[in-house]
Amino acid sequence: MFNSGTDNVGFFNSGTGNVGIGNMGTGGIGIGLQGDNLMGIGGLNSGSFNVGLFNSGTGNVGIGNSGTGNVGIGNSGTGNWGIGNSGSHNTGIGNTGSYNTGLFNSGSFNTGIANPGNFNTGLFNIGVFNTGIANPGDYNTGFYNTGDYNTGLANIGNFDTGAFITGDMANGVFWRADSIGQLSAHYAITVNRIPAFLTIDAPVNIPITGTITDISIPAVTFPKVPATGKVDLAIISGTVIAPIGPITIHGGDASAPLNTPIVIDFGTQPALQLNLGNPDGSTVVHVGGYFNFGPGQIPLIDIKPAAGFFNATTGPSSGFFNLGDGSASGFANVGANNSGIWNVATAALGNSGFQNIGSQQSGLANLGNAISGFLNTGGATPANLSGFQNIGTDLAGWYRNGPDATTFSFGIANPGFWNVGSANIGSYNLGNANIGDSNFGFGNIGSANLGSANLGGFNLGSANLGSYNFGFANTGPALSDAIGNIGFGNTGSYNIGFGNTGNGNLGFANTGDGNIGIGLTGDTTTRFGGWNSGSGNIGLFNSGTNNIGFGNSGTGNWGIGNSGSYNTGIGNTGTTNTGFFNSGMVNTGIGNAGNYNTGCYNTGCYNTGDFNTGSFNPGDYNTGGFNPGNYNTGYFNEGNSNTGLANSGNVNTGAFISGNYSNGLLWRGDYQGLLGFTYESTVPAIPWNIGVHSDIDIPITGAINTITQDMFTIAEFEIPISLETTIFLIYVPFVGCVLHVSVTVPITTEHVGPFVIDPSVINPQSPIKTAITDTIDFSDAGTVGPATFGFNWQQSPGFFNSSDTPSSGFFNSGAGGASGLLNDAQGAVSGIGNAFLESSGFFNAGGPGLSGLQNVGTLESGWANFGNSLSGIYNTSILNLMAQAFVSGLGNTGHELSGFLNDAMA
């Protein structure tokens, strides 16, 4: 068995013709022989860098591996994890292909048993990307389908949903033809043609009159016009000067003033008289028209026949509720070429199996590309993964984080590795809710503690604040770190005993340094001083102030071995705690290293492990248990604001979800498992037509008055005539005139005018007789639509939440980021019925920073407390809510109290 050579007899041989175990060569008889024709025992391993027995390859871990880099028994391939794998990077038994998870797969990237094909999830699938059993075809969901993209049993055709179908795209059983049995439904409201008619008879008898006022033209004066001429007589010559004007034209006769205007007279008003239509009312304008709308249909239900049921893919698909690009089979897959249930394809090559997100995957809840198995995580490029919960590339096996690391812990919600327990943040812890490494116990913050609720490192015991302490409830002054105490309830360092305040004391209830004895006050004293040291203590072996009980070293404590302040209980090192072994502040419960917690073993410091209600919470503001994250309601949640179990993402409602904002189980992506509904219907185009007709004949009759020009006058004007001549005073013959003078001689003045122009008719009365005639003939037609209407509903994360931003859980309102039920706060909360942000628990109100049940105020843990900085049950502060009261215990009223039923008002 498990031989990789030829003609070998025995186990784990990788050569030829060997007899025995782990021989690597030819013709060997024996164990672990390297070479040819040898006999005997050569060694437990042959090959190189092997760990185990009878390995003959390279870098193997296990027994009888003859390949390279295998982990397991009898693997002869490369990088396999399991038994008898001869392929590459397989996880399982007897796989001869590559990157398979399961048994006897000869293909690649299969999850299941004996799949010869590739990327299948199931058994005996010959094709590719099938989910089911013995599918020879491709992309099928079901059994024995020889066609492609079928959902069901023994379908020979393609895209069938059902059983024994030989046709294509059919739904049902035994169909022989194509597209048979497809679901369809159509219900529509038919709207008949809606006619409308228009008839208008409008009588027209419209008198129109117009008034035209007389036109006055101002008098006009033309300026003087110069006029000259030449005179050349025998006895005289010169220039005749005769200017004309000025000439004035004015209205009226000659006696009228020169500025009298010229008037154009339009007669008695109104000057214009018209009538549209006959005055007797016989003129009527008739307008006729029509409008038709429809017929049309309004579909209310319109489910068109298609392969499968309620699919919304761009190509044909079988199955139910598939959507996205391409074709698919199965149930509620998104994207192309998927088979199975709830897979999301991010590329053209899809997935088989269940809830995978990515491409080329088989199995369950894988995220990435080229993966088989369960809950593996790769990237967008091919990861070549097989196995269970691996992270990285080219890996096979379980819980591998890259080639050299692991994510394995024995428990739930461990962000580290090699933890035994749950909710540990770190590695190599044995216990629950530890923050750090190598702790043995519960709720430790630090490393290498043996015990619980230690805030520090290398402590042996519980509730120690500091390091290297042996015992419980040891702390330093003012809650500083204590070092090297042996005992309990010591405040300081290097004390042996209990109830000591100081350093280096040996004994009980000593106050000071270096004392040996009981009840001593001072330094380096050896004797018996008293049952208590300090002041105001009641009981035995108390140091400190106002303690009641046994072995207390702090202030105002009630109980046994308390080294903090105002604690009620046993072994508390913090402040205002009620319970046992609390090293934080204002905790109610057991072993709380954080602050303001209600419950057991909640861990954290200031920002980590505070305000939890429950047990073993390393995170903050959680209601439940084992939550490393914050604001969770439930258990084992590594993410934030989850409601449910073991969610590593954020704002999820459900279990084992590593994505975000999802409802359900095992989701790897975001916004998965959210219900949605879309209804959409298209109203086809509806025809319409319209027409208008009218013959218009409207007579127009009337007249325009006579237009008359009134009298006007050209006024009298003068023309003075004179002669301008030149006289020669000295004349020289043959030379000419050498001295002359020019003289102007008036001759006469002529008077012209006046001229009177009588009134005249410019335009006689003008009758008007015409008509407005036209024909209006208009028609048109067209369609309205098509129009699509509908509605959709998309579920938000959780159920019935109405918060401003997403919340998980049920019926939450407010600002968002909540988990749980019925919370209404202006910020993130967990639990049930809380009214203020940064709270956990149940029905808390009054302010932020609450854990527990029915507390009112702020910075409280426990049950039914009222005030600020209270732990325990039914305690009441007498201060205002802004002042810290520091009360622990049961039924106390006042401030700075511990114990039971104290009343500072009495």
Automatic annotation (TrEMBL):
GO biological process: response to host immune response
InterPro entries per record: Mycobac_pentapep
Domain of life: Bacteria
Pfam families: Pentapeptide_2
Protein's name according to its UniProt entry: PPE family protein
Protein source organism: Mycobacterium shottsii
